[in-house]
TrEMBL record:
Family: Belongs to the catalase family.
Region described as Disordered: spans on this chain: 514-537
GO biological process: hydrogen peroxide catabolic process; response to hydrogen peroxide
Listed SMART domains: Catalase
Catalase core domain: residues covered: 55-434
Listed PANTHER family: CATALASE (PTHR11465)
This protein's name: Catalase-like
Example GO molecular function: metal ion binding
Gene: LOC113402497
Cleavable signal peptide: 1-21
UniProt keyword terms in alphabetical order: Heme, Iron, Metal-binding, Oxidoreductase, Peroxidase, Signal
PROSITE patterns, per database record: CATALASE_3 (PS51402)
Superkingdom of source: Eukaryota
Xref: Gene3D superfamilies: Catalase core domain
């Protein structure tokens, strides 16, 4: 009897030791591993048992012998057919730009009274919180590309307001590359891959830039330290355009919105970015995910630079020009609130890939920009989302507004309730949805005229007033590798454009380029040949 008791006690001792060892191993694992890497283990911890019985997409329960295709009639196995046919169709068209990105949920909280400037509900009422989804991205990379590539980064913010979705589609630079909407397809083609080699091509980039010099200002931002931020959390973001806004009395203002990171702006030199790239192409994505999982919630302050209706008539430059900055002293800045990201999506595809942003998604009190580039974008973005996600993309969960009553019907799913049995035409006599009257709608019309003239004072100002001497040196060093491989006549055109912008900059780049061209070309990368195998007789 005593031996039996001793055996039982010893058995429980072993169980306790195993649990203790398991807990210790788990503690060590979770504390030495970043949150993104242990996501699957965390799922298992949250679900100690299987979450349900496996089914086909139609809900048929899968019997265990159907989960193996060997030595069976796989063409009679509905589970196999369901699995394979869905796999063939599980990808949607890749975004032309901003293909690689990631998303997070959060909220926007109003911290300052701006009712004298705009009647937009989302920005009024100190303490008011509005849910948001934000998608970060790198512009030129394909899906699976490099987060740390030297290029523009995106930060698209969708506010789910009571008056509809407000999308502030922002970039990591406060200026854009061009102002003519017709230039956009060619600008993107020059930045993307060569149609024959399928490689990024510096010749195409410099050819386009020197043919369209208004692009130079944006290019200098990209070649500077600002071209590689240290993650999405540590960059500012700008919706680029000058927005017209109005208050409830019909008073009108012109503003530029700015998202200022509360983490502090940090940028990476090329050498650091290259070292990180060798280890982790998803550095930005991982950094954002881990910060949120560790409750180190990233935040941005939303502010607006403001000019009155009268102010904008008196200035000596075009404030609607997206390739230039507003001159200091011609505007004042007012904070609006804080954007905080506090939740990662539970599924990447249904949030990041299915999200659809459109700069034309505006709300009462923010009638929007007046320039032609914006007018083109609000049409092009919607067309792009219809191509990628279908005409009902605003009925996908991540894009669904808080309130929606439409006469749109049918089309590819999701259609949700498809407006059920309500009339499908307007006007009607049967109490379908009706439009509202906005007594504060703007009565004055403001017309903006564009010019073709190229003004290099903006890139010159950036060189002389934005960059310290060490930053200027790094911009030069970042420029040389893009000039070395291109044809001599393109090199001369680039040097001429840079010299017209800043003579000393052009001279320094020319001298360093000549030194670089004297160096022997780097040896070709070694080709690792597999050992030859002897053929069996």
């Amino acid at each position: 009897m005593k031996s039996m008791e001793a055996y039982i006690c010893y058995f429980f001792f072993l169980v306790i030791k195993y649990v203790q060892c398991h807990d210790n191993e788990l503690y060590e694992y979770l504390n030495r591993t970043d949150r993104s890497t242990c996501q699957l283990y965390e799922f298992k911890e949250d679900h100690p048992k299987p979450i349900g019985i496996l089914t086909t997409s139609s809900g048929k329960l899968v019997e265990i012998r159907e989960s193996i295709g060997l030595n069976s009639d796989v063409f009679s196995n509905q589970y196999n057919i369901d699995l394979m046919t869905h796999t063939n169709a599980e990808r949607i068209p890749e975004r032309l730009v901003h293909a690689k990105g990631t998303a997070a949920f959060g909220y926007f909280e109003v911290t300052n009274d701006v009712s004298q400037y705009t009647k937009a509900e989302v920005f009024n009422g100190i303490g008011k919180k509005t849910p948001v989804v934000v998608r970060f991205s790198t512009v030129v990379q394909n899906l699976g590309g490099n987060d740390l590539a030297r290029e523009i980064k995106g930060m698209a913010v969708k506010f789910f307001t009571k008056e509809g979705n407000l999308d502030l589609v922002s970039l990591s630079f406060p200026v854009f590359f061009h102002r003519d909407p017709i230039d956009f397809p060619y600008f993107i083609h020059a930045l993307k891959r060569n149609p024959k080699t399928n490689l990024f091509d510096f010749s195409a980039r410099w050819d386009f830039i020197t043919k369209k010099p208004e692009n130079l200002h944006g290019l200098l931002w990209m070649l500077s330290d600002y071209g590689i931020p240290n993650g999405y959390r540590k960059m500012d973001a700008f919706p680029i355009h000058t927005f017209q806004i109005n208050n409830k009395h019909g008073g009108s203002y012109f503003v530029k919105f700015n998202f200022r990171t509360e983490q502090g702006v940090e940028n990476l030199p090329s050498s650091a970015a290259e070292a990180i790239t060798a280890r982790d192409l998803d550095y930005y994505t991982r950094d954002l995910y881990n910060a949120i999982e560790n409750k180190n919630y990233p935040a941005w302050t939303l502010e607006m630079d403001i000019m009155s209706f009268d102010d904008i008539k008196k200035i000596d430059y075009n404030p609607f020009e997206v390739t230039r900055l507003w001159k200091k002293g011609t505007y004042y800045t007012v904070p609006i609130g804080r954007l905080v990201l506090d939740r990662n999506p539970d599924n990447f595809f249904r949030v990041s890939e299915m999200s659809a942003f459109n700069p034309g998604n505006l709300v009462p009190g923010i009638p929007g920009p007046l320039d032609n580039l914006f007018k083109s974008r609000r049409s092009a973005y919607r067309d792009a989302q219809i191509y990628r996600l279908g005409v009902n993309h605003n009925r996908i969960e991540v894009n669904t507004p808080l309130y929606s009553k439409v006469y749109n019907r049918d089309g590819k799913p999701p259609v949700r309730d498809n407006m059920m049995d309500a009339p499908n035409y307007y006007p009607n006599s049967f109490n379908g949805p009706v439009p509202y009257v906005d007594p504060s709608r703007l009565k004055e019309r403001f017309t903006v005229f564009d010019v073709n003239a190229v003004d290099l004072d903006q890139p010159e100002y950036f060189i002389k007033h934005y960059l310290r001497s060490d930053q200027r040196e790094r911009l030069i060093n970042n420029t040389i590798p893009t000039l070395v491989p291109i044809a001599p006549y393109l090199q001369r055109r680039a040097i001429r454009l840079l010299t017209l912008t800043d003579p000393s900059l052009g001279r320094e780049i020319s001298e360093k380029l000549q030194e670089a061209l004297k160096q022997p070309p780097p040896p070709p990368l070694p080709v690792l040949n597999e050992p030859k195998r002897k053929m069996k007789s």
